Amino acid sequence: MSQSKSKGLYLVAAGLVVALVMAAIALAQQTQTNAKIDKLTHLAEQQSALIAQGAAQGDIQTQIVDQLEAYEKAKLLREYESVVTGYQNAQDKIESGDRIYGNPDAEFSVIEFSDFDCPYCKRYHDTPKKVVDGSGGDVNWVGKHFPVHASAQPLHKASECIGQIAGNKNFWAATQLIFDNDGSRGLKPADLADKMPVDREAFAKCMASSEMQAKVDADYKFGQEAGVSGTPATFVIHHKSGEVYTLKGAVPAGQLEIAIGQLRKKAVAQQATPSS
Fold it and tell me: Cα separations (Å) of 12 from 2, 6, 37, 58?
């Protein structure tokens, strides 16, 4: 390449970089979103590097698109990774098919009926988790779908598809991401899949089938039969005695712990009472 052509190419590169950076600044002033500045800055850096390497314009465009897609995917997965690390007490596979967080053989289960578009459910979501995490394996948390809001239905189905494709732990990570993004007001099923390590073709196939919707519907019917009329609704069960304690609304962790304590005392008292 001649010196004059090389100099011209670098001037073009510099001009493109300046233009893109200026666009980033203008966009920041208009939207005040740092995420868009990052994206445009990344684009400018990639274009500058490719031009400096002497790549053809068509190749530059293709490579930049590929790199931006990879950049966006990595950014989305960082959100997932920050969430899934908090769900290490969830096993990847549960033989029963239930959505269980914690020890599947725990003495107590906290069964929660939840709606992804319910603000009280969002507030309550961390509560059963905290109780399970502090129980030393004595308590688990069972998630049940009860989408009172029709707008939440697709996300309930999507969470089950993710659980089916990527395992029980990722189901729980998906529920956290849904609440973190304000339910259907912030996410569509495809957006959720973008944030998760799931095969998009398998996810689309699952969403097109009726299998996971049937699971959501079965949870809803079970909740109705159990007397659930609003969310969140919680049933604390002591498996050995079969005793159940019912809680309504976004109760604090202390109330859950009191319910567990009362069921434990009742079970001990029953064992101490001689049978007739």
Answer: 15, 10, 22, 16
d(C-alpha 202, C-alpha 187), whole Å:
19
Query: pTM of the full predicted structure?
Result: 0.75
Burial (CB count within 10 angstroms: exposed 0-12, middle 13-18, buried 19+), residue 177: buried
pLDDT tens digits, residue range 148-163? 999 999 999 999 999 9
Q: Could you tell me which of 137, 86, 141, 93 has the C-alpha nearest to residue 113?
A: 141
Q: Hunting for tokens 């790549």 — which residue is that?
A: 55
Contact predicate 114/125, CB 8 Å: yes
Return the structure tokens found at 265: 């005392």
- Counting every residue written for the chain, the total comes to 276
Q: Which residues pair with 236 in a beta bridge?
A: 110, 245
Q: Which of 50, 69, 68, 58 is nearest to 9 (CA)?
A: 50
Helix axes 153-166, 211-225, angle to 10 degrees: 120
Identify the CATH homologous superfamily for domain 90-271.
Glutaredoxin (3.40.30.10)
